Automatic annotation (TrEMBL):
This is Histidine phosphatase family protein. The lineage of its organism: Bacteria, Pseudomonadati, Pseudomonadota, Betaproteobacteria, Burkholderiales. SMART domains: PGAM. Keywords: Signal. Residues 1-29 form the signal peptide. InterPro entries: His_Pase_superF_clade-1, His_PPase_superfam. It comes from Curvibacter cyanobacteriorum. The keyword Signal applies. SUPFAM superfamilies: Phosphoglycerate mutase-like.
Length: 196
Protein backbone atom coordinates (compact mmCIF):
# COMPACT_ATOMS: atom_id res chain seq x y z
CA UNK A 1 0.00 0.00 0.00
CA UNK A 2 2.84 2.40 0.89
CA UNK A 3 4.55 1.56 -2.42
CA UNK A 4 1.32 2.26 -4.33
CA UNK A 5 0.85 5.61 -2.49
CA UNK A 6 4.39 6.68 -3.33
CA UNK A 7 3.91 5.59 -6.93
CA UNK A 8 0.63 7.54 -7.15
CA UNK A 9 2.18 10.63 -5.55
CA UNK A 10 5.14 10.48 -7.94
CA UNK A 11 2.83 10.02 -10.92
CA UNK A 12 0.57 12.93 -9.89
CA UNK A 13 3.59 15.15 -9.27
CA UNK A 14 4.97 14.39 -12.73
CA UNK A 15 1.57 14.96 -14.35
CA UNK A 16 1.19 18.19 -12.44
CA UNK A 17 4.62 19.30 -13.54
CA UNK A 18 3.82 18.44 -17.15
CA UNK A 19 0.55 20.38 -16.89
CA UNK A 20 2.37 23.31 -15.33
CA UNK A 21 4.97 23.27 -18.12
CA UNK A 22 2.23 23.11 -20.74
CA UNK A 23 0.44 26.02 -19.08
CA UNK A 24 3.70 27.96 -18.92
CA UNK A 25 4.23 27.35 -22.63
CA UNK A 26 0.82 28.84 -23.35
CA UNK A 27 1.58 31.76 -21.09
CA UNK A 28 4.80 32.39 -22.99
CA UNK A 29 3.03 32.12 -26.33
CA UNK A 30 0.53 34.76 -25.22
CA UNK A 31 3.24 36.95 -23.71
CA UNK A 32 3.98 38.61 -27.06
CA UNK A 33 0.34 39.52 -27.71
CA UNK A 34 -0.01 40.83 -24.14
CA UNK A 35 3.04 43.04 -24.48
CA UNK A 36 1.88 44.32 -27.87
CA UNK A 37 -1.55 45.11 -26.40
CA UNK A 38 0.14 47.50 -23.97
CA UNK A 39 1.07 51.11 -24.66
CA UNK A 40 4.82 50.60 -24.23
CA UNK A 41 5.75 47.90 -26.76
CA UNK A 42 6.14 47.99 -30.52
CA UNK A 43 7.18 45.30 -32.98
CA UNK A 44 9.65 46.31 -35.68
CA UNK A 45 10.31 43.97 -38.58
CA UNK A 46 12.94 44.11 -41.27
CA UNK A 47 11.38 43.33 -44.65
CA UNK A 48 11.49 39.69 -45.70
CA UNK A 49 14.17 38.33 -48.01
CA UNK A 50 14.81 40.40 -51.14
CA UNK A 51 18.07 39.33 -52.82
CA UNK A 52 20.84 41.90 -53.09
CA UNK A 53 21.98 44.97 -51.16
CA UNK A 54 20.57 48.45 -51.55
CA UNK A 55 18.69 49.23 -54.75
CA UNK A 56 19.74 49.44 -58.40
CA UNK A 57 21.09 52.79 -59.60
CA UNK A 58 18.26 55.07 -60.70
CA UNK A 59 15.51 53.22 -58.81
CA UNK A 60 12.19 55.05 -58.41
CA UNK A 61 10.40 54.73 -55.08
CA UNK A 62 6.92 54.36 -56.58
CA UNK A 63 7.96 51.77 -59.20
CA UNK A 64 8.56 48.28 -57.83
CA UNK A 65 10.17 47.05 -61.06
CA UNK A 66 13.10 49.42 -60.41
CA UNK A 67 13.73 48.21 -56.83
CA UNK A 68 14.82 45.10 -54.97
CA UNK A 69 11.65 43.15 -54.21
CA UNK A 70 10.76 39.92 -52.41
CA UNK A 71 11.54 36.70 -54.23
CA UNK A 72 9.50 33.52 -53.63
CA UNK A 73 11.52 32.75 -50.50
CA UNK A 74 10.84 36.22 -49.12
CA UNK A 75 7.12 36.00 -49.88
CA UNK A 76 6.87 32.64 -48.10
CA UNK A 77 8.86 34.01 -45.17
CA UNK A 78 6.50 36.97 -44.73
CA UNK A 79 3.45 34.69 -44.90
CA UNK A 80 4.96 32.33 -42.28
CA UNK A 81 5.68 35.28 -40.00
CA UNK A 82 2.07 36.46 -40.19
CA UNK A 83 0.86 32.95 -39.37
CA UNK A 84 3.24 32.74 -36.42
CA UNK A 85 2.07 36.12 -35.08
CA UNK A 86 -1.54 34.94 -35.19
CA UNK A 87 -0.52 31.76 -33.33
CA UNK A 88 0.94 34.03 -30.63
CA UNK A 89 -2.46 35.69 -30.24
CA UNK A 90 -1.79 38.79 -32.36
CA UNK A 91 -5.16 39.02 -34.13
CA UNK A 92 -5.46 42.79 -34.54
CA UNK A 93 -2.67 45.07 -35.60
CA UNK A 94 -2.03 48.54 -36.87
CA UNK A 95 0.57 47.84 -39.54
CA UNK A 96 2.80 50.58 -40.97
CA UNK A 97 5.34 50.11 -43.75
CA UNK A 98 8.24 51.90 -45.32
CA UNK A 99 7.34 53.19 -48.82
CA UNK A 100 9.83 50.69 -50.35
CA UNK A 101 8.08 47.91 -52.28
CA UNK A 102 9.82 45.07 -50.41
CA UNK A 103 8.49 46.45 -47.11
CA UNK A 104 4.96 46.96 -48.45
CA UNK A 105 5.01 43.41 -49.89
CA UNK A 106 6.12 42.04 -46.51
CA UNK A 107 3.50 44.02 -44.58
CA UNK A 108 0.71 42.88 -46.91
CA UNK A 109 1.71 39.21 -46.65
CA UNK A 110 1.55 39.32 -42.85
CA UNK A 111 -2.23 39.28 -43.34
CA UNK A 112 -2.91 41.48 -40.31
CA UNK A 113 -4.62 44.36 -42.09
CA UNK A 114 -3.94 46.84 -44.86
CA UNK A 115 -0.53 48.42 -44.23
CA UNK A 116 -0.19 52.18 -44.09
CA UNK A 117 2.56 53.63 -46.28
CA UNK A 118 4.58 55.62 -43.72
CA UNK A 119 7.54 57.86 -44.70
CA UNK A 120 8.90 57.81 -41.11
CA UNK A 121 9.93 54.19 -41.84
CA UNK A 122 11.74 55.01 -45.11
CA UNK A 123 15.28 53.74 -45.55
CA UNK A 124 18.21 56.13 -45.27
CA UNK A 125 20.70 53.54 -46.60
CA UNK A 126 21.66 55.87 -49.48
CA UNK A 127 21.68 58.95 -47.22
CA UNK A 128 23.33 57.98 -43.91
CA UNK A 129 23.39 61.63 -42.87
CA UNK A 130 19.59 61.37 -42.49
CA UNK A 131 19.87 58.79 -39.68
CA UNK A 132 19.20 61.30 -36.88
CA UNK A 133 16.21 62.92 -38.57
CA UNK A 134 14.68 59.56 -39.59
CA UNK A 135 15.12 58.11 -36.10
CA UNK A 136 13.48 61.19 -34.57
CA UNK A 137 10.57 60.81 -37.01
CA UNK A 138 10.28 57.12 -36.06
CA UNK A 139 10.18 58.01 -32.35
CA UNK A 140 7.42 60.57 -32.98
CA UNK A 141 5.44 58.00 -34.99
CA UNK A 142 5.73 55.40 -32.23
CA UNK A 143 4.76 57.82 -29.46
CA UNK A 144 1.77 59.07 -31.46
CA UNK A 145 0.48 55.65 -32.52
CA UNK A 146 0.97 53.91 -29.16
CA UNK A 147 -1.05 56.65 -27.47
CA UNK A 148 -4.00 56.03 -29.85
CA UNK A 149 -3.90 52.38 -30.89
CA UNK A 150 -5.94 50.89 -28.05
CA UNK A 151 -5.11 47.22 -27.42
CA UNK A 152 -4.19 46.26 -30.98
CA UNK A 153 -0.55 45.58 -31.80
CA UNK A 154 1.61 48.21 -33.48
CA UNK A 155 3.79 46.58 -36.16
CA UNK A 156 6.30 48.57 -38.20
CA UNK A 157 7.91 47.02 -41.30
CA UNK A 158 11.11 48.82 -42.20
CA UNK A 159 14.83 48.34 -42.93
CA UNK A 160 17.91 47.16 -41.04
CA UNK A 161 19.45 50.66 -40.96
CA UNK A 162 16.31 52.08 -39.32
CA UNK A 163 16.05 49.30 -36.73
CA UNK A 164 19.77 49.53 -35.94
CA UNK A 165 19.62 53.32 -35.46
CA UNK A 166 16.54 52.97 -33.21
CA UNK A 167 17.48 49.96 -31.06
CA UNK A 168 21.16 49.23 -31.74
CA UNK A 169 20.23 45.75 -33.05
CA UNK A 170 21.25 44.67 -36.54
CA UNK A 171 18.78 42.15 -37.93
CA UNK A 172 18.58 39.76 -40.86
CA UNK A 173 15.87 39.86 -43.51
CA UNK A 174 12.53 38.95 -41.94
CA UNK A 175 13.69 39.23 -38.32
CA UNK A 176 11.61 41.12 -35.78
CA UNK A 177 12.53 43.20 -32.75
CA UNK A 178 10.16 43.65 -29.82
CA UNK A 179 11.02 47.05 -28.35
CA UNK A 180 9.90 48.53 -25.04
CA UNK A 181 9.63 52.29 -25.35
CA UNK A 182 8.92 55.34 -23.21
CA UNK A 183 6.14 57.89 -23.75
CA UNK A 184 8.40 59.82 -26.18
CA UNK A 185 8.81 56.72 -28.37
CA UNK A 186 12.46 56.17 -27.43
CA UNK A 187 13.72 52.60 -27.17
CA UNK A 188 14.42 51.49 -23.60
CA UNK A 189 15.30 47.86 -24.31
CA UNK A 190 14.57 45.25 -26.93
CA UNK A 191 14.49 41.58 -27.78
CA UNK A 192 15.31 40.12 -31.20
CA UNK A 193 12.79 37.38 -32.01
CA UNK A 194 13.96 34.21 -33.79
CA UNK A 195 13.72 34.19 -37.58
CA UNK A 196 10.62 32.46 -38.95
Amino acid sequence: MIFFSRFLLTWLTRCGLIALLAWGGSAQANDLSQRLASADHVLLMRHAYAPGIGDPTGYVLGRCETQRVLNDEGKAQATRTGQWLRQQGVQQAEVHSSPWCRCLQTAERLGLGTPLNTPALASFFDQPEQAGAQTAALQRLIAERLARKGTQALILVTHDVNIRAFTGASVRSGEMVLARVNAQGQSLDHQVLPLR
